[in-house]
Protein: ABC transporter ATP-binding protein
Amino acid sequence: MIDSMQEFTAPAVDPTVPIIKLEDIHVIFKTRTGSLLHPNKVHAINGLSLELMPGETIGIVGESGCGKSTTANVMIGLQQPTSGHVYFKGVDVTKRTAKQRKTIGRVISVVFQDPATALNARMSIHDQLMDPMNVHKVGTKAEREKRVKKLIELVGLPSSVLEALPGQLSGGQRQRVAIARALSLRPDAIIADEPTSALDVSVRAQILNLLTDLKRDLGLSMVFISHDIQTVRYISDRIMVMNKGQAVEKGTAKEVFENPKDDYTKLLLGAAPSLLHPDLGK
Ligand SMILES: Nc1ncnc2c1ncn2[C@@H]1O[C@H](COP(=O)(O)OP(=O)(O)OP(=O)(O)O)[C@@H](O)[C@H]1O
Structure:
């Protein structure tokens, strides 16, 4: 771990105010097909409420199509809810202004499933890490250069990768770069949408461990999205189980695993073998 972690730690915030709060969110997509009951409509999110408190990791778990990514998109403002409210540090940003959008884009970072598509194939790793800091005019050029070197160290990569293009790195290394970039603006929160699903099983464990270390050392708040309940258990303080656009169960990781209340949660717990690497203890 590097000495000067402090400059990467999440900014101090009021511990009693959620970083992100979703209140009774509905998202209805207009489509060409739809269902028998709702022709030409998909009710992707159906009355969802959620609070991400400072320093905590919330795991969102559910099968493909249950609305996990749409929930993430509502949080970061990529998807406008059909109804309901989105709060950022206590401020209603449901209909966010361009200025609010820019601010929130800076303080909530996203790590996507596939680092190959999230990174620019033609840009060196150095330039990709510099880019968000250039856009948001962070410090002087010399300070940004120094920060790039520290960021790459923070995610456990040698400085030699800075000159590489994404295609020259392994999937796991690329995801580390994506995480370094997500940390570059010292975010309040990270939204990780299936960040390990595209990786080999052994690499998955390494990335999960890296995220666990970072959240502990930097005091990050995190929303961790996955269809694998064991992976979610490993990293989350609290878990929300989603089914058909609704939260069917919420609780601490311990509560959800030891005393699941909802039938769907029980089904998930008893379903397919974990995608988690066996080296990660239960
Ligand atoms: N832009 C869109 N237009 C129409 N329907 C959409 C759109 N985006 C998502 N949906 C639908 O909304 C529902 C929720 O999708 P979403 O991608 O949020 O689920 P998910 O749980 O993230 O699934 P996955 O794990 O496969 O990404 C699905 O039925 C999906 O087909």
Q: What stands out?
A: The beta strands are 20-34, 39-52, 57-61, 83-88, 91-92, 108-111, 189-193, 221-226, 238-243, 246-252. Residues 5-270 form a domain with the Rossmann fold fold (CATH 3.40.50.300).
